[in-house]
Structures are given as C-alpha cells and as structure tokens.
Amino acid sequence: MDKLLHNLPKEGHWHLLLKRLLRTDVLLMSPWLAPIMWEGTFNRDILNAQYRQKNFVVGVATFAVKKYVRFIEGFLGSANKFFLSGHRVNFYLFTDHPEKVPSMKLAPEKSLVIIPVQNYSRWQDISMNRMDIISNHIRTHWRYEVDYLYSMDIDVQMFEHIGVEIIDTLVGTISSWQYTKPRDSNSYERRPESRAAIPSGEGDFYYAASFYGGSVSEVYKLTTACFKGVTEDRANGIEAKWHEESHLNKYLLYHKPTRLLSPEYYWDEELIRPRIIRVKRLSSVRKDLKEVRF
Ligand code: UD2
C-alpha cells in the first residue's frame, strides 16, 4: 500500500484525500466487487453533493408492537439527528399502539407516518410478518412515495451519522457476530427441510435482519421472496433457526447485495467491540428478552 501511495503524484488535494481513505485492516470490497462501508473509506461531502442532485426520498420501515413501543423515542430521536441528516426521509412506524407514539419535533426534511398494525401472540411472528407487511406496503403505497427503502429494528439507537453512503440497489449489513466468532459458527439455517436452508459449506457473509434495504423494487423482490419462504415453512411445520433473518441470508447469498454495510452500522451491545470497529454508528439497546417479549 505504501508503494502504491509512493507512485502517486505528490501534488494536490486528491493525493491527501486518497491517503486518508485507505484502510488496510478490513475487507473493503466483497469478492463480487460490492463496496463494504467502513469509517475512513469515503468522503461524505463528495457523496452528499452527488446525492443532492438526485433529490431522492428514502423510506424507513420500523415496527413497535406491544412492549417495543418503549423504544420509539430513542429510535426516532437519534434517527432524526443522525439518519441521512439534511436529506428527505419518511419514517413509517407500524404499531399496535398509535396512541403511545410520543409527539416529537422532526427536522423539516423528515416526516413520520404512523401505520396501525395488528399484534401477534408470538414475538417471532411479529418479527417474521414484517417481511409480508413491507412487501404489501411497497405494492400499495411506497413505490409511489419513495425511491429507496430500508427496514430497521426499533430497539436500536444511533450515535454517529449514517449518510448517503448506505444508498444502493440492494444493501445488507454484515452481522457484528461475524467479527467475533469464526465464520462457520452455524448461524445459517442448515436443515434442508426449511426454505431458508443453505447447504453445508456454502455461504459468505452473515447479514443482520435489523438493517437492510435498497431500491424499492429490489426490496419488494427480497421481502416477497423471504415471506414466501416463511409461509412455505409454516405449511411444512418448520420455523427457520433465526426466523426471517435466516430467509434474508438465503436470499442475499443468491442475490448478492450491491453494497455491504460493515458492523459499524449495527453493533450488538452484547459483544466486545474490536479495534477495527472505529465508530459505533448504530447499536442495539440492551433489553431483558423475557420481560420485553411477553
Ligand atoms: C434478531 C434480528 C431481528 C430479527 C430477529 C428474529 C439482528 C440484529 N436482529 O434480533 O431483525 O431477525 O432476530 O429472530 O439481526 N418486534 C416488536 N415487538 C415484539 C417483538 C419484535 O415490535 O414484541 C419488532 C421490533 O421492531 C424489533 C424487531 O421486531 O426490533 C425484531 O425483534 P427483536 O429485536 O426482539 O429480535 P432480536 O433482537 O432477536
């Protein structure tokens, strides 16, 4: 890398810029040439200037059902500040308790749409049915309203800017567990009976279902396909190991993301953060699973 820099002309702003943007401690590109977004690998000013010319609208779908309404304020308050700051964003909040949504003043370019949704007795069904609800809303509303759409868990908080570097056709977030455990830690669904099954020995990145997205048409294809898998599993009396996350991982293995977000974009607070995670842009809120899900 030093040799590369040495061979570049020493003059000019761009030499300094390039030098600042090189990282040698992490994988910057997937084997299918999709960029992997890490702190220190992009210049947000340049990206913002490009993006502004396009006047895109981004939608964010998130769910707060039953006790998860308690996470709304932390999510929206931090997203208002850190998510695509200065750009147009519609937050679509699905909840069974619209009356419990706190009134919050959002930035002028941001808006909040509250959409009533039914609840399910099992938390796994709330989580898995998100795929179906998102796919239906794309068909009926969002394809007319937004250019890009991201699905995010509600029990998260943002601490640093998440900007237009996340925008691309099909985007997945690499799970933070992939950086703390050996690759084949058996996170994929391997049972051949499940539609989410990935044959043993296959697989590359493991993606977190907490944050994925892309163009509206690609997210439609993804959510429709994943929910079809969930429905077929239900008919066959099987539930994938990590629910819709297993189906998401199967989909993204065979439909490669055009951009990957590093675990800086979803850090699991249960894990010790290695040095390569230079910033924690977004992380999970610690929760008592037994208390919050029942
Ligand atoms: C993982 C995934 C999550 C989902 C889940 C399924 C990550 C970091 N997260 O998180 O996306 O795939 O596994 O096993 O990969 N929800 C409610 N009310 C409930 C339960 C869930 O609103 O009672 C919604 C809420 O938006 C929540 C999401 O569903 O953020 C996922 O549920 P979770 O956060 O409890 O799942 P978790 O932490 O196991």
From TrEMBL:
Pfam families referenced in this protein's UniProt entry, alphabetically: Glyco_transf_6
Subcellular location: Membrane
Membrane topology: Single-pass type II membrane protein
Name this protein carries in UniProt: Histo-blood group ABO system transferase 1-like
Primary gene name: LOC112123559
Annotated catalytic residues: 245 (nucleophile)
Alphabetic keyword roster: Glycosyltransferase, Manganese, Membrane, Metal-binding, Signal-anchor, Transferase, Transmembrane, Transmembrane helix
Necessary cofactors: Mn(2+)
GO molecular function list: hexosyltransferase activity; metal ion binding
Origin species: Terrapene triunguis (Three-toed box turtle)
Main localization, broad class: membrane
Residues annotated to bind UDP-N-acetyl-alpha-D-galactosamine: 63-65, 68, 153-155
Domain of life: Eukaryota
One example of a Gene Ontology biological process annotation: carbohydrate metabolic process
Membership in a protein family: Belongs to the glycosyltransferase 6 family.
Entry's Gene Ontology cellular component terms: Golgi apparatus; membrane; vesicle
Annotated positions binding an alpha-L-fucosyl-(1->2)-beta-D-galactosyl derivative: 245, 268
Binding site for Mn(2+): 153, 155
Alphabetized InterPro entries for the sequence: Glyco_trans_6 (IPR005076), Nucleotide-diphossugar_trans (IPR029044)
